[in-house]
Amino acid sequence: MKAKFQEINNNSITSMTKKCLQIAVIMLLSFTSIQAQDKKAKDLLNEVTSKIKSYDNIVIDFKYSLNNSKENINQDSKGNVTMKGNQYVLNFMGVTKIFDGQKTYTIVPEDEEVTITKINEKDDNAITPSKMLTFFNSGYKYTMDIVQNVKGRKIQYIKLVPTSGKDQRKEILLGIDVQTKHIYNLIETGKNGTKTTLTVNSFKTNQPLSKNQFTFVASKYPKYYINKLD
């Protein structure tokens, strides 16, 4: 299958800059300040997680940008995703992915092909849209970053630094709407200079969904080749 959908990469690497402190008093004060900042960031992330878990379902329209000035790459794409628990329907770059809680169905109209795979829930590298909204709960160090005013919305950024030495990303900036506690955007910078930005254009919750919203119906694709990998 000609894969067109590229999921957000879950591996990243960086090291936190250590300040050179000349006297013990300054070192102590700096340490205390960093700890307080980390706690504030953690508290905000906890609020985001609690808010997300309070919804029955979430429907998001988003923009995905990929930029690398050295390689002269500048790509923009739009998509949407509907989530309920760990189930989802994702439409992105002409490809539809349906996850019913057990299997993923990747539908590629251009190739007239459906690929069916079973998700290994123990695989940390298996990124799903639902994980995208709570991925920050483990595997990262975090500190409060800048605050920006975006069309009247106060967006607080939190800098996430992966703790795994295998990660290829330098850092992640997670923008959170201070009032709604919804994620506004996610800016990921890789060691190779590639920057990917996911911006939420529309965030709707508790929408009326079809009973078969997350069910793959084979009869809708009579001429498609069904490729079962599991």
Number of strands: 12
Biggest sheet: strand arrangement: 7-8-9-10-11-1-2-3-4-5-6-12
| Rg value | 20 Å
Whole-number mean pLDDT: 80
Give the strand content.
35-45%
Low-confidence stretches: 1-31
- Mind describing the biggest β-sheet? 12 strands, mixed
The computed structural class is mainly beta
Q: H/E element string?
A: HEEEEEEHEEEEEE
Helical content (DSSP H or I, runs of 4+): 10-25%
Query: Judging from the principal axes of the Cα atoms, what is the shape?
Result: globular
- Helix tally equals 2
Distance between the termini: 15 Å
Signal peptide: 1-36
Organism: Flavobacterium procerum
Keywords: Lipoprotein, Signal
Pfam family, one: LolA
In short:
It contains two helices and twelve strands, in the order H-E-E-E-E-E-E-H-E-E-E-E-E-E. The protein has helices at residues 24-53, 129-132, and strands at residues 58-68, 73-84, 87-92, 95-99, 103-108, 113-118, 140-150, 153-162, 169-177, 183-190, 195-205, 225-228. It has a twelve-stranded mixed beta sheet with strand order 7-8-9-10-11-1-2-3-4-5-6-12, covered by helices on one side.
